[in-house]
């Protein structure tokens, strides 16, 4: 499977970030802190492995909370999505026909029985995404 350079860069950034999970904590005045491994421990209260981001807003603005929540959940959402992309790319590569498309006068792909021009033949689109699929 061929990962695009951007996917590889995203994976490298995710792998280099502080391990998760990440959680949010609010100071009651408008600032949210994104913590690594935020948890409650008996006798110590709320503890974490450190603050990974600070988001300052206005008390009650809501947007700062949504931004902090997004940042905290990205720690686990990004690896999940990267794994899902890899799974779907492998599926597409396994299902795509490597035979080249050939088109009739309507622009329909006769090789794969695709009778539309938009979207184009899915086998041709898969071959564009994964050039190694093309029959040589
Ligand atoms: Zn086709």
Task: Summarize this entry quickly.
The protein has helices spanning 5-16, 63-95, 122-129, and strands spanning 22-26, 31-36, 39-41, 45-47, 51-56.
Description:
The protein is of the alpha+beta class. It has two domains: 95 residues, no CATH class; 41 residues, no CATH class. 39% of the residues lie in helices and 17% in strands. The chain has three helices and five strands; from the N terminus they run αβββββαα. The strands form two sheets. It has a three-stranded antiparallel sheet with strand order 1-2-5, with helices on one face. A hairpin with a 4-residue loop joins strand 1 and strand 2. Helix 1 crosses helix 2. The protein is elongated, with a radius of gyration of 23 Å. The two termini are 17 Å apart. The model has no long low-confidence stretch (mean pLDDT 95). Zinc ion (ZN) binds next to helix 3.
